[in-house]
Amino acid sequence: MERLEVSKLNHHFGFTEILRDINFNLEKGQVLSVVGPSGGGKTTLLHLCADLLDVEEGSVKNSFVTSSFAFQEGRLLPWKNVIDNISLGLIAKGIKRKIATQMSQDIALKFGLEEDDFDKFPKDLSGGMKQRVSFARALVVKPSLLFLDEPFSALDIGLKQELQSILIDMIDKKEITILFITHDIMEAIRLSDKILLLEADPGHIVKEFDYILPQKERDDKFVYEETAKILQDETVINTFELNITL
Amino acid sequence: MKFILKILKDFPAYLWSGWGAIASIFLFIACWDVGNQIYGDLVLPAPLETFKTLALMLQDDSVWEQIDITLYRAFMGFAISLVFGSILGLLAGFFATASMMSRPIVTILVGMPPIAWIVLAMIWFGMGDETVIFTVVVASFPIIFVGALQGTRTLEDNLKEMGESFNLPWHMKFMDIYFPHIFSYVFPAWVSGLGMSWKIVVMAELLATSDGIGASLAVARSQLDTPTALALVVIMIGSLMFIEYIILEPIKREVELWRD
Ligand SMILES: Nc1ncnc2c1ncn2[C@@H]1O[C@H](COP(=O)(O)OP(=O)(O)O)[C@@H](O)[C@H]1O
Ligand SMILES: [Mg+2]
Questions:
Q1: How far apart are CA A105 and CA B148, in angstroms?
Q2: CATH code for B48-259?
Q3: pLDDT score recorded for residue B253
Q4: Residues B139 and B111 sit within 8 Å (Cβ to Cβ)
Q5: How far is the CA of A40 from the centre of ligand 1 (A)?
Q6: What does the domain layout of chain B look like in residue ranges?
Q7: How far is the CA of B148 from the centre of ligand 1 (A)?
Q8: Nearest one of B51, B89, B59 to B189, comparing CA atoms
Q9: Does A75 contact chain B (CB < 8 Å)?
Q10: Is A203 near ligand 1, meaning CB less than 6 Å away?
């Protein structure tokens, strides 16, 4: 069985403690979200899980066969156009260029990019378009485990929901496992089986929330209600330094 | 291959965009003519006379011989700089210590006036090809070296990580991540290095040899043959402009399309 096991994970950058005692398991087919304020070490945690940073203390065991990563800042190759950026992972897997291009064009259209955009270089794309390209590049390789680092942060609401419903379809068919990072609680509630709440300085997990209802059946009402519930939680209010009175 | 075709396809549009440049050249020639009317034929021959002399000279085989000699020296020097400057610059870029250590050497190479190198080279190599080629190398090497060094020093970890996350094989890492970035630094350095080589070669020849365009220029000076001197200058400038605007600039445009 494919799974990701994180235990007793600590991390430092220089003398600054970034993460302390992180423990969780991610099973195949699950969606696990890590929610927390920015600067809390979420990106660092994801990089450690994806083996982009060396683990110093504790352990990360990843037995997923394939994985891919959608980066917070896109990280597109500035000298490649939209389609060549998306097809990068496919070509690396040894898929023929013609097929890879076709697959990339299909997914680009599905992600709300237009044919006119295909030949554009990243410098001519908006922030939202770059995120879509980066997200498409990660998804087109059909990874068994997907690492998402705030992939929707630069998108407007309509597009955000469209992409989320694409993910929800895949989750529903048990095609994918996701480790998802966000600072948007509603987004996490819509997509996750489990949410870990990460508090900053140093990053540590203060609370877990589980959601049983299948993602397909979650409507706006469900999301709002659960969000309201979470926002009443003392720990959440402190973590995000919220000043709301409900 | 596709790339070369694209360059050729965009070439007419590029030429069309050059009207402004041509207009400014004509304006320059007009000023030159005014200068001729003020200062007289001895100091500044008229453009027309210069071009007539030029046309005559270009029919003369011995002039072409001189041009060939100069071309050979410039390209030998440039080629040596290109190969060693690029390779050593890339290597130095990969090692922090090497790039730190190379800085003072580059400063010396850049800061020392070429004329001083010519004198030294004349002492070391005597009068001839070696002196000229040496001076060309010394002048164009640091430009190319620094370009290559900066290309490797500025490689971004972010993109490297991205390449790793998609398990790019090494040849893709090189061709898709490292090479385009480095090339965008190295190529402009090659262009400046070439321009430098062409300028320095004539200067070195003028002082250190008895053949080549530079030496012809020295002869024209001693005979107060201003039209010939100017015609030689036109050859030098014309060939530089040809290489730069007709050959290199269109390539540079295609190569740097992705840049802001
Ligand atoms: N490579 C690095 N070197 C040093 N400090 C870093 C590095 N990357 C991140 N940090 C620091 O670690 C902390 C957590 O960053 P990050 O993981 O990006 O947080 P988040 O993704 O939750 O916003 C921040 O204070 C950041 O400045
Ligand atoms: Mg982050």
A1: 36
A2: 1.10.3720.10
A3: 83
A4: no
A5: 8
A6: 48-259
A7: 31
A8: B89
A9: yes
A10: no
- Sign of dihedral through CA atoms A131, B171, B89, B7? negative
C-beta atoms of A141 and B181 within 8 A: no
Confidence of residue B82 (pLDDT cuts 50, 70, 90): very high
Report how far residue B91's alpha carbon sits from residue B94's, in angstroms, rounded to the nearest whole number.
Answer: 5
Flag whether the pTM goes above 0.80. yes
Read off the pLDDT of residues A74-91 as tens digits, 9 standing for 90 and up.
899 999 999 999 999 999
CA distance B244 to B194: 9
A13 ligand 1 Cβ < 6 A: yes
CA of B14 to the centre of ligand 2 (A): 44
Buried b (16+ CB within 10 A) or exposed e, A89-126: bbbbeebeeeebbebbbebbeebbbeeebbebbbeebe
Rg (CA), chain A: 18
CB contact under 8 A, B258 and A80: yes
pLDDT at A245 over 60: no
Catalogue the E-assigned strands of A86-193: 145-149, 177-182
CA of A198, closest atom in ligand 1: 22
Q: What is the ipTM of this complex?
A: 0.87
Q: How confident is the model over A109-135, as a mean pLDDT?
A: 92
For atom 1 of ligand 1, the residue with the nearest CA is A13
Sign, CA dihedral B37-B42-B43-B48, equals: positive
DSSP at A202: T
Task: Among A186-195, B215-224, B249-258, name the one with the lowest average pLDDT.
Answer: B249-258
User: Can you read off the two tokens belonging to residue B116?
Assistant: 């001083």
Between chains, do B172 and A92 touch, taking CB under 8 Å as contact?
yes
Query: To the nearest 10°, the Cα dihedral for B158, B160, B162, B167?
Result: -170
Question: Residue B54's pLDDT is what?
Answer: 92
Distance CA A2, CA A67 (A): 11
Cross-chain Cβ contact A92/B168 below 8 Å: yes
Nearest CA in chain A to B257: A79
The residue whose CA has the least distance to atom 10 of ligand 1 is A13
Q: Ligand 1: distance of its center to the CA of A44 in Å?
A: 6
Q: Please work out, in degrees rounded to the nearest 5, the angle formed at the alpha carbon of residue B125 by the alpha carbons of B119 and B130.
A: 100
Pick from B150, B211, B222: which is nearest to B183 by CA? B150
Nearest CB among A73, A91, A123 relative to B258 is that of A123
The DSSP code sequence of B178-205 is IHHHHHHHHHHHHHHHHHHHHHHHHHHH
- pLDDT category of residue A195 using cuts at 50, 70 and 90: very high
B155 interface with A at CB cutoff 8 Å? no
Average pLDDT, chain A: 90
What pLDDT, on a 0 to 100 scale, did the predictor assign at position A81? 93
